[in-house]
Amino acid sequence: MSQIFDLNRFLHLVGSHFRKNLKTYLISCVVFAGVTIGLFVLVVSSYREEAIVAGKQFFVYLIVIYAGLFIFTVGVFQPFQRPREGPFQLMLPASGFEKFLLGWLVSLVGYTICANVVFFVIRYAVLQYYAAQGYEVSGFLDYDRILFQQNGISMAWVLAAIYLFLHSFALYGSLMFRKMAVLKTALALLLVVLAYWVVNGMLYRSLFQLDIQQTPLLPLMPLFLQGDGMVYQVDIPDWPYWLLALSIAVMGLLWVASYHKLREKEG
Amino acid sequence: MVRLTDLSFGYRNQPSLFSGLNLSLGVGHIYGLLGKNGSGKTTLLKNMVGLRSPQAGRATVAGEDTAKRRPNVLSRMFFLPEEPYVPDQTAKVFLGMNSTFYPQFDRTLFGGYLEAFEVPEQRVLTKLSLGQQKKFMVAFALACRTKLLVMDEPTNGLDIPSKVQFRKVLASAFDEDRCIVLSTHQVRDLDNLIDSVIILHGGAIKLNAPLDQLTSQIRFGNVSGADTADILYGEQAIDGTHAILPNPEGASSKPNLELLFNAVVSDSGILLDYLTTEGVR
């Protein structure tokens, strides 16, 4: 029997995990559905027009799916942090890799499938309700401003990169912080993003003698410079794919770091 | 079975707890690990089972490094902490979740232990009293029938009848293929249960010896004022001096663990010197 991965042992671990957490997951789905409904109602009622365009739907989607991913993932390894439960989980006869893989699959694959199913079921119900009220509703994928840029590069790659980065960061936070892990991880993320903006802004200003319209949100994104009444765009061809490659490298490092953190965790 | 070799450990920003510690434990014994509060008993046990990684040296079980926490090693040992974890579920669900990880787990034995401890099987575990939760986990730990069973302060939180029951159940669960290590700072709780004693003091194993070997070399008894010349260690009491004496005749006496512990951790090294001379330590 392999000491790294054994399918039977892993299936036992999966079974044990779901027997313990199924009730919590079901309640979480209900809460997720409730928040989605609430946000839809809030977004729709905040506009005077009687239309639910794809952009509004996409806004709700991004908020609930990304925030849900972050909160759920930060919680996935929290049992290992609890003073009583931690030693029990660490001593459970399964390998560190199997325990990590379970947490990774549940928080990334499991969550993504469940959250999307719940979101689209709720979206369908909400849109049916508003359509009956005489609202004009659009299809979800009609929002080409987000999904497709004018030059044809899909922004979905950028959103996927952010999604995966958020997951890897949250997973590391789950193993890093014992208490108030969601808050601390969110704060750490905020500090990382702020530090990036500040340092990157200083770097750009030292490189170019023109006004920078806005420091790019993410690395490798186009830079817009203003000077002599002109606006210049500096970008790398196919930058979304480079961004995706960079994200994969960063999140790969974070996932590997999380695995080692779990393997070396002490109780 | 268990071997600690040149083990050193200390918590971050704190003085070292152990340095170059060596210990060897075999199957067929119930060891009592005794030590004062804060002497490092729990830390030593955690190093033993791999919950803490030594800064230097090794902790092995059946020749395998415990710090690596390989599944084949984990399935052969069970560590019961002083405050064990119980989930918000019934015993049946708990067993379904966890017993499959222990190939030797015996459901019948588990039921028997629960009955002996008078712990109801149908109730949600977190609704049980702390003592009952502990007894539940002791029953689970014993029913796993692992080669190595390590219990940290197992009698803490148990009432007097439960302590008696604990001793009976543990004695019945013990066999020659198992190694059981119990730690406590209440030495009387382990009376009539352990067959070997380990005393941890000042970051070192001061004594690691089978009780029968000890009692063949030393004798425990009460002595009056005139006969105190041979005493290795003594404590004044109302009925005379409770003493540890040399035992050249090999007379049998019931070991007084509390007295032995006090003798070992006292500043006087007479007893330990004597035991070293007699080849017991």
From TrEMBL, chain A:
Transmembrane segments: 25-47, 59-80, 101-126, 146-169, 181-199, 239-257
Superkingdom assignment: Bacteria
Keywords for the protein's UniProt record, in alphabetical order: Membrane, Transmembrane, Transmembrane helix
Protein name as it appears in the record: Uncharacterized protein
Organism in which the protein naturally occurs: Parapedobacter pyrenivorans
Native organism taxonomy: Bacteria, Pseudomonadati, Bacteroidota, Sphingobacteriia, Sphingobacteriales
UniProtKB/TrEMBL annotation, chain B:
Keyword ATP-binding on entry: yes
Matches recorded under InterPro entries: AAA+_ATPase, ABC_transporter-like_ATP-bd, ABC_Transporter_VariousFunc, P-loop_NTPase
Gene3D superfamilies (alphabetical): P-loop containing nucleotide triphosphate hydrolases
PROSITE patterns (alphabetical): ABC_TRANSPORTER_2
Coiled-coil boundaries: none
Gene Ontology molecular function, alphabetical: ATP binding; ATP hydrolysis activity
Presence of the UniProt keyword Zinc in the record: no
Pfam families assigned: ABC_tran (PF00005)
Domain ABC transporter: 2-227
Taxonomy, superkingdom: Bacteria
Keywords: ATP-binding, Nucleotide-binding, Transport
Record-given protein name: ABC transporter ATP-binding protein
Species name: Parapedobacter pyrenivorans
